[in-house]
Amino acid sequence: MQQKVALVTGAGRGIGVGIALKLADAGYDVGVHYAVSREGAEEVAAEIRKRGRKAFTLQADIKKVSEVRAMVDQFVDHFGRIDVLVNNAGITKFAHILETEEEEFDEVLGTDLKGAYFCTQQAARHMVKLGIKGVIVHNSSNHSVGCWPNATVYAAAKAGVNKMTMNMALDLAKYDIRVVAIAPGYTHKQLDPTMSEGVRAIASRIPMGRFCTPQEVGDAVVYLTSAGAGYITGTTLFMDGGALLPVVAQNEYS
């Protein structure tokens, strides 16, 4: 069987690092995309090579469709195929509805929604052309259904990701391309998280009492891209330690 390959956007830091390394551990060669964190992306690529897999770094501003298409084309030219795309790149910005600027709106929607849309489009075009039964994974958030202050733009972007996942899955099912999303809650940005006082305070409000880790998000991606998840498409997996449960309970019983 030809070696499978995965492209992970925003893989130079944070959750993307955990996803890229877990895919490498699962046997994938990995394309490590970055926008500005080149040093981090090179470090991730080096770690992937230490694990016996091939790695290739790519730079693009995914808010720009021309750069998205060039990046995905470059990835396919390098590896010869694309089996998995993980749309992990995203921007988290919070502002009150009365204070949100147009620039903030465009940056969040442009990266979290538009970028994921056109990365998917270009990757799916190659999958269809090459006859690959691929998998596309979007990184959403529990903000997509939960409601917290000052998150209007971010929440709207992630809600759009969830709905986009469903419609993309419908459009691509006839090509045996699956589209799924993961929706983490609070997640450590480091692979080796430390529980600072501020983190402990927030974690105390989460039923499971802690944050998610990048490795756990990576494990979820590995499962969703595996043959064991071969009948799963068009859905969003929430992984927030039960953070949404108190919100639901409060609304239900207050």
Specify Rg, calculated over alpha carbons. 18 Å
Number of strands: 7
What gap, in angstroms, lies between the N and C termini? 56 Å
| The CATH architecture | 3-Layer(aba) Sandwich
Average residue pLDDT: 90
CATH superfamily: NAD(P)-binding Rossmann-like Domain
CATH class: Alpha Beta
Could you tell me the strand content as a percent range? 5-15%
Order of helices and strands: EHEHEHEHEHEHHEH
Can you tell me the CATH topology? Rossmann fold
Helix content: 40-55%
The strand line-up of the biggest sheet is 3-2-1-4-5-6-7
Give a short account of the largest sheet.
Answer: 7 strands, parallel
**What sort of overall outline do the alpha carbons produce when their principal axes are compared?**
globular
Q: What is the domain tally?
A: 1
Alpha-beta content class: alpha/beta
Low-confidence stretches: none
Number of H- or I-type helical stretches: 8
